[in-house]
Amino acid sequence: MTETYTIRGETGDWEVVVGLEVHAQVTSNAKLFSGAATAFGAEPNTQVSLVDAAMPGMLPVPNRECIRQAVRTGMAIEAQINRWSRFDRKNYFYADLPQGYQISQLYHPLVGEGAIDISLDDKNPDATGKRIGVERIHVEQDAGKLMHDQHPTQSYVDLNRSGVALMEIVSKPDLASPAEAGAYLRKLRSILRYVGSCDGNMEEGSMRADVNVSVRKAGDELGTRTETKNVNSVRFVMAVVEQEAKRQVEVLEAGGKIQQETRLYDPDRNETRSMRSKEDAHDYRYFPDPDLLPLELDDAFLEECRASLPELPDAKRARYEALGITTYQAAVLTAEVEAARWFDALLDAGVKPAAAANWTTSELFGALNRTGKDIANSPVSPAQAAELLGLVADGTLSGSLAKQVFEVMLETGDGAAKVVEDRGLKQTSDTGAIEKVIAEVMAANADKVADYRGGKDKLFGFFVGQTMKAMGGKANPAVVNDLLKTALG
After folding, report:
1. What residue spans define the domains of the chain?
2. Angle of the 382-393 helix axis to the 416-423 helix axis, nearest 10
3. Alpha-carbon gap, residue 401 to 87, rounded angstroms
């Protein structure tokens, strides 16, 4: 896919081996084992049930929707769906974990092996991709949150997140560079958002990654890995891979050993710091949760999950390319689910695919970037865009006039036809009016007319520009070109 990523050390080149454990908050109306709400930004400890607070005698009850969303996610990456799975208790003490254990899945996860295809060059139709293996997806409950900045000598606990449903999506160690790690995380986020199983808002903590990194000489066995916890952006994940790999190479070349440990990333200093030694599964004393029966999925449930899946990014991208849209435009249009839905609505309104893609990726996306808006809050709807492009297609508007109309639409929210009528922006194909202006332009530039007729063909563009300028951009460019060719001889 790309040239092999290596770190050049004093003793030679080192390869990087990366695996990601992504924690994705499940889109649901309640927590994994209680009916408490999960809205972001609520006041501390206002979304906590007796189950979440681990009050004596409280028993967990699985949320069917959380299980459904995890199964749909597994199906979207063509993973093995395990009809029989089981919850385990992961035992450890921490102040934000009121139960003293986390309900998770270790030995029998809900979803088994799958894969995600990535590419590092969306502009190149011939670029080869890479398939990244997914080892498993299991569901588990989140812990609460310690708040250290509320009191000078004490830490407070907010249990709003306690019991929130997470999918832990564990990749195989198939990633070999910062760029591949970034591409994988972006693709996974896109799939989750298409499926609707996670909103992917990393800045809000609903999707975060634990980054496992090791280094080795080419052909050697896997090195000792470190795990950098809770990295909350694609850019930071890529930085962790780069900086942690460099640190490990420096340690090894200085004669040291890599400790299997958990680390934290400091984005201000762009470095990882040791947090604690890395525990193994046996350190957590996993055992089957005695309060929860195994999950058994029947055919009807699985069929409903599969039938509810939307068209996914790769399939949508292939469909767009089959419509004549360029590889790059198809990649841009399918990267975010909101953009793809907006564009599909534009196509459904009857706009030709190539024209729709050109206008959306240039004019619309350019305007949204300029105004700091996303497509979900676009002031111009697909129906309004279709009306505008229809006026271009039927000759009512030239390209330059369409830009003017679009700017007014952005400001006012009015439809294209209303803007054209109110502002008098209709394109003219009146040959008499255009011929009159051409005659005036030629009379004012007699020297350039002589030069053109003497063989300077490139001056033709000058006459087109002068004519369009004199007519305020309202002349039909095709008619202007034809009439100028005749007049100039």
Report:
1. 6-301, 311-423, 431-488
2. 60
3. 63
Q: How many residues does the chain have?
A: 489
Question: Which DSSP symbol is given to 58?
Answer: -
Identify the H or E element spanning 407. Answer: helix 399-412
Q: Which CATH class is domain 431-488?
A: mainly alpha
Tokens of 341: 């839905």
Question: How much is the average pLDDT of 69-79?
Answer: 98
Measured distance CA(357)–CA(363) in Å, rounded: 10
> Exposed, middle or buried, 126 (CB in 10 Å: 0-12/13-18/19+)?
exposed
Neighbours of 374 (CB within 10 A): 11
The model carries a pTM of 0.87
- Which tokens go with 114? 């799958």
Contacts of 376 (CB under 8 A, 6+ apart): 338
Q: Identify each DSSP E strand in 142-286 by its residue range.
A: 145-147, 156-158, 165-171, 207-217, 226-231, 261-266, 271-277
pLDDT tens track for 249-296? 999 999 999 999 999 999 999 999 998 776 676 789 999 999 999 999
Q: In whole angstroms, what is the distance from residue 365 CA to residue 112 CA? A: 38
- Direct distance between the N- and C-terminal alpha carbons of the chain, in angstroms, rounded to an integer: 54
- State the average pLDDT for the chain: 93
| Tokens, residue 460 | 């033709």
Instruction: Compute CA 246 distance to the chain's CA centroid, rounded to the nearest angstrom.
Output: 28
Q: How far is residue 424's CA from residue 326's CA, in Å, rounded to a whole number?
A: 35
What is d(CA 208, CA 311) in angstroms, rounded to the nearest whole number?
25
Q: For 416-441, how does the pLDDT look when each residue is reduced to its tens digit (9 = 90+)? A: 999 988 887 776 666 887 888 899 88
